[in-house]
Amino acid sequence: xxxxxxxxxxxxxxxxxxxxxxxxxxxxxxxxxxxxxxxxxxxxxxxxxxxxxxxxxxxxxxxxxxxxxxxxxxxxxxxxxxxxxxxxxxxxxxxxxxxxxxxxxxxxxxxxxxxxxxxxxxxxxxxxxxxxxxxxxxxxxxxxxxxxxxxxxxxxxxxxxxxxxxxxxxxxxxxxxxxxxxxxxxxxxxxxxxxxxxxxxxxxxxxxxxxxxxxxxxxxxxxxxxxxxxxxxxxxxxxxxxxxxxxxxxxxxxxxxxxxxxxxxxxxxxxxxxxxxxxxxxxxxxxxxxxxxxxxxxxxxxxxxxxxxx
Length: 310
Known about the structure:
With about 300 residues, the chain is an alpha/beta fold. The chain has helices at about 5-15, 20-25, 30-45, 60-90, 105-120, 135-140, 185-190, 200-215, 225-235, 250, 285-305; strands spanning about 50-55, 55-60, 95-100, 120-130, 145-150, 155-170, 195, 220-225, 240-245, 255-260, 270-275.
């Protein structure tokens, strides 16, 4: 038996798919039945929940409010089910993790692999989101935990663990800079640089450092994509300025080197594991938290011993 009414189930499906037809296909129910329940719900609430458009169904302001509440109700029920499973000692289940694109190449795969090895019964559902919108998505019940870069202070968002990643220059392993433990900005101006462009946040940071140091590098190329910048470095086009997080996968494979930039004015990138303080963490979620903490500690120790030089 589904704990929610058919109206709410149908409403959520239509809101998610933005179409009665697609919702009907997903639920394997006649579209006329879904439409009938939606109309009955609108009559009961005395307000339209959708705008009927030629291209599909769009939520009204009232519909948006109901959608946000309904998602939270579903998430709360899922939390309750997990807590009951905890009481039963069940070690299987799912945990929803929100993360930014920057973590998809190294950190998150390491976390998923670690969970699979130590807790094979736990399925980690990874949802990649725009970093700026992760906090709100977490509060709306779309995740159990979230990894976020340079998190803003938000009410009800609690930081469980955090670590910092240095900023610096990426170069081939055989490059002269790769022999250094740290470098200063002036040292790197003798080499062609692949300049980061907007919308990369690192572009603003690098521009500020260049203006503050009153230096101008020889420009080899410009790119607004991290993977393109790394590919150009690997091809020998030049060096580039990124965080150690951006190049973590390539450094671990020995394909590229990362050299931290020294200087009191050089900022760091902060990675935080956060959760919604209004929701209780289940045993399974705590296991994911512990694995994330261990991976963060591992990277912190590696950074202390070899400056992530690879």
